[in-house]
Amino acid sequence: MKINIAIDGPSAAGKSTIARKLAEKMHYVHLDTGAMYRCTGMKAKKTGIDLEDEKALCAMLQKTQILLTPEGKVFLDGEDVTSLIRTDEISLAASAVSKHPEVRKDLVARQQQMAKAGGFIMDGRDIGTVVLPDAQVKVFMTASAAARAKRRYDQNIASGIPSESLEEITKEIEQRDYQDTHRSASPLTQATGAVVIDTSDMTIQQVCDAIWALAQPFVIKEEE
Ligand code: DC
C-alpha cells in the first residue's frame, strides 16, 4: 500500500508548490487542505454568513460540495474556483472559519476519508497532528515571514492576481500566523515525529529532494 505524507507549516511557506511537485514525481495525489477552508470562507462570504457563526457555517457545509481534482483544480458546488479562492480577502476568511472546531471536524472527516487509500501528499496546518497522525512521513515546513511575503508577492504578480504591496502582504501573513497558531482548535504546531525544514534559503528542488529522501525508504518497501 502507498504511504501518506503530511506537510504542515505556516502560510506561504511553499507547502503546496512542493507537495504538487513531489506528488508528480512519486505518482501520488496532492491534497491541498487549505483550499477546503478557502472554499468554506468564500461560500460564507458569498451567501452572507457571518464568519463567526459556527452553527450557520456547519449547516452551510452540510449542503456544500468541495471537489479537489488530482490535477489541482478546486470545484465549489460544481463551480471552478481554483484561482478565485487565492485572493487576500479569501485568505483571511479561510483563516477566520478555520478556528471553529465544528467546521474543522467536518473538513477533517472529508480529508481522512479521501486519504484512506494511501498515496496522498496532504498539506495544511493539522495534517501530522490531527488528520493523519499515523502518516509515515511528517514534515513541518517553515520560512521567515519576509521570505514568505516576498514569494506570495512574486506569485501574485506572476499569475496576474491583483496584489497588495509587499508590506501589506507581510502584515497579512503575520496576522494569519498569529490567528493560526493562537486558535484553541488544532492550532498550528509541529507534530510529534515531524522533520522541520526551513525553506527560507532553499530552492524548490532542494526542498523536494529533502522530503524525497525521507520518503524513499518507505517507497522502496512499497515496491518490494
Ligand atoms: O494553506 P492555505 O494558506 O491555503 O490555508 C488557508 C487557511 O486555512 C489558513 O489560514 C489556515 C487554514 N487551514 C487550517 O486551519 N488547516 C488546514 N489543514 C489548512 C488550512
Question: Which tags fit this structure?
Answer:
binds 2'-deoxycytidine-5'-monophosphate; single chain; five-stranded parallel beta sheet; 224 residues; three-stranded antiparallel beta sheet; alpha/beta; 9 helices
Please describe the topology of this protein.
Elements lengths: L4 E4 L6 H12 L2 E4 H15 L6 H9 L3 E3 L5 E3 L2 E2 L7 H10 L3 H15 L4 E5 L2 H5 L5 E6 L2 H14 L7 H17 L12 E4 L5 H20 L1
Parallel strand pairs: 1-6, 1-7, 2-6, 7-8
Antiparallel strand pairs: 3-4, 4-5
Number of strands: 8
End-to-end distance, in Å?
A: 11 Å
Computed over alpha carbons, the radius of gyration is 17 Å
Number of helices: 9
Question: How would the global form be characterised?
Answer: globular
Largest sheet: 5 strands, parallel
Percent strand: 5-15%
List ligands, each type once. Answer: 2'-deoxycytidine-5'-monophosphate
Q: Approximately how much helix is present in the residues?
A: 40-55%
Poorly predicted runs: none
Strand order of the largest sheet: 2-6-1-7-8
**Integer average pLDDT:** 93
Helix vs. strand class = alpha/beta
Query: What is the chain-wise order of helices and strands?
Result: EHEHHEEEHHEHEHHEH
